[in-house]
Amino acid sequence: xxxxxxxxxxxxxxxxxxxxxxxxxxxxxxxxxxxxxxxxxxxxxxxxxxxxxxxxxxxxxxxxxxxxxxxxxxxxxxxxxxxxxxxxxxxxxxxxxxxx
Length: 100
Hints:
Blueprint: E1 2-6, E2 10-16, E3 25-27, E4 30-31, E5 40-41, H1 43-49, E6 75-80, E7 94-99
Antiparallel strand pairs: 1-2, 2-3, 4-5, 6-7
């Protein structure tokens, strides 16, 4: 787990996808809890919902604090241009998953 504070105040949760020393992580931008009627969208809101703090940085994603699993549901993933940046704005590195 990699955690940083956006704007110095919103905890953002990332799942690291590469080995130590290699760049690569997925920013969790939304979650849908089993008991919820609708998803929580936005990385800062997700962090607050899950009570993420900077102290969680370095935690395992399959440990007692966090557990990430594949539910094997089929989903369509769309690639779109990134937003809020000034370089490589047309590079489709913003991925949006839609449950089928």
